[in-house]
Design a protein that fits this description.
The protein has helices at 2-5, 7-33, 45-61, 73-98, 105-135, 149-161, 180-190, 202-205, 210-219, 259-294, 325-332, 353-360, 369-374, 387-391, 422-434, 438-453, 455-458, and strands at residues 141-148, 167-174, 195-200, 223-226, 238-244, 247-253, 300-306, 312-318, 378-380, 406-408. It has 461 residues and is of the alpha/beta class. It folds into 3 domains: 2-135, no CATH class; 141-253, Rossmann fold (3-Layer(aba) Sandwich); 259-458, no CATH class. The strands form 3 sheets. The chain has a 6-stranded mixed beta sheet. A two-stranded antiparallel sheet has the order 7-8. It starts with a helix and ends with a helix.
Length: 461
């Protein structure tokens, strides 16, 4: 849940709390001043200076920033009111012990009562807004449940009773089944799964080898929540601790992408795609005429590809092949020069004369800026595969579709015409996922631009 863990989102809520406390203070001062002269507001600003950082710190330790998803409204209200009460006690103690500034009990009481009301209402609105969006299908996660015993039953019941958490159960697999690895692999291949939840009671575990299941989920690039104490060491994943309701869990991340950086990446995607769409609109008439004069068929080519965690997306490209290219591909498979589930052929007869120019200059890719703008793709990522290619994947290949696909990527700027082994392509994709940063994206974009102007030196994009 991106918004839940984003530092930027936490900062925004904390800043809003700060503004609400300031509003409560000045309203309290005005209210108190109407009851009699108490002097200028400057005499009492020390109360604001002390109470704001104290209140924000207490709310942080009470997990009121970024942890609201699994809290009830009652728990949120209770924690918020308690945080303001505790902040009042601490602030009054500091003022009394330091003899700092002037002191008005009524002003003090009005301030913390108004502050409690304002911040509680804010938290309620945030929670209700989150619940509403998740019930409408926004910011939801598809989960695969694996386990047995009372802990799994409790987890299933909790998820079903809490639709506002935004969790949708794809399948439930009994971990005690003899063919559980095959069932897990089949579910991960055939369903859209964002996270894998593993929960089983200690008395039900027996001699279960959980490492096989963890390895499968990791190879497929899934986030894993294990509702039991584990000390397994995985090859790629980072480990974190979290609470799911009142149950402790370990989270194994196969990709460690900071949520705030993802927000920044999305912002760059939007700005970059808007610029790309402007260029696409400018060249569209000329490219369309050239395509139409060269061969019959539509100007744009639409194809189903596989995006984030197996989601199907429709990509758009300027048509660079004859309109029967997909049918002719079956006849040309024997000429495939690439090893693995990807097709590459030098002097592919399906490509038109104009298409060769469009591909050499990467102009055929420009309509995909629309996919980037929609959020189906990113400017930088892994190449979006076709469903036929994915059906031929081995387990470890699936990790490359655990992020949004991109217009360009590490493989493309590494000389894609020279790399014909699919395993090498996947290795580059996994390297990108493991070492991702905004700086890496910027370097790849810069190299991509350089290749566009010098396609003969680095291979066609």
């Amino acid at each position: 849940m991106l918004k839940e863990h984003s530092k930027a989102a936490k900062f925004f809520v904390a800043f809003t709390d700060c503004m609400l406390l300031c509003a409560a203070f000045f309203m309290a001062f005005y209210w108190r001043s109407t009851q009699g002269s108490i002097g200028p507001v400057d005499y009492y600003l020390i109360l604001l200076y002390i109470s704001v950082p104290v209140t924000l710190s207490i709310q942080y330790f009470l997990k009121l920033y970024g942890q609201l998803q699994y809290m009830s409204l009652l728990e949120i209200c209770t924690r918020t009111i308690f945080s303001l009460f505790l902040a009042g006690v601490v602030s009054s103690s500091i003022l009394y012990l330091t003899h700092a500034g002037y002191f008005s009990r009524l002003l003090f009481g009005y301030y913390f009562v108004l502050g409690s009301v304002f911040i509680t209402v804010e938290k309620i609105f945030i929670k209700i807004g989150q619940n509403y969006l998740r019930k409408k299908g926004y910011n939801t996660r598809n989960i695969l449940l694996i386990g047995s015993g009372g802990k799994l039953d409790r987890l299933v019941k909790t998820v079903k009773e809490m639709p506002q958490w935004g969790l949708k159960v794809g399948s439930i697999i009994d971990i005690t089944d003899s063919n559980v690895p095959e069932r897990v692999k089949k579910a991960l291949k055939s369903q859209i799964i964002d996270e894998v939840f593993i929960a089983f009671s200690r008395d039900a575990a027996g001699d279960i080898n959980i490492s096989t299941i963890l390895g499968l989920a990791e190879e497929f690039g899934k986030t894993i929540k294990v509702f039991i104490n584990l000390d397994e060491e995985l090859h790629h994943s980072k480990i974190d601790f979290c609470h799911f309701a009142d149950m402790p869990a370990l989270v194994f991340y196969s990709k460690t992408i900071d949520p705030d950086m993802l927000i920044l990446k999305r912002g760059i995607d939007i700005m970059g795609s808007l610029a790309g769409l402007c260029i696409t609109a400018a060249i569209f008439p000329f490219v369309a005429i050239a395509i139409k004069l060269d061969s019959p068929g539509p100007v744009l080519f639409t194809q189903t590809r596989i995006g984030l965690n197996g989601r199907e997306i429709k990509i758009f490209k300027f048509r660079s092949m004859y309109k029967d290219a997909e049918d002719r591909k079956r006849e040309l498979l024997k000429n495939n020069e690439a090893a693995g589930p990807v097709f590459k052929m030098k002097n592919d007869p399906r490509i038109t004369r104009v298409g060769r120019f469009l591909r050499k200059t990467s102009i055929d890719e420009f309509p995909q800026f629309w996919n980037v703008f929609k959020g189906d793709m990113s400017l930088v990522g892994t190449r979006p595969p076709t469903p036929d290619e994915v059906r031929q994947y081995r387990a470890w290949h699936y990790r490359r579709i655990s992020i949004r696909p991109g217009l360009t990527g590490l493989w493309q700027v590494s000389g894609r015409n020279k790399i014909k082994n699919f395993d090498e392509i996947v290795t580059l994709d996994l390297k990108y996922i493991s070492s991702w940063s905004i700086w890496l994206d910027c370097k790849i974009l810069a190299k991509t631009v350089a290749i566009l102007f010098r396609p003969d030196k680095s291979g066609a994009m």
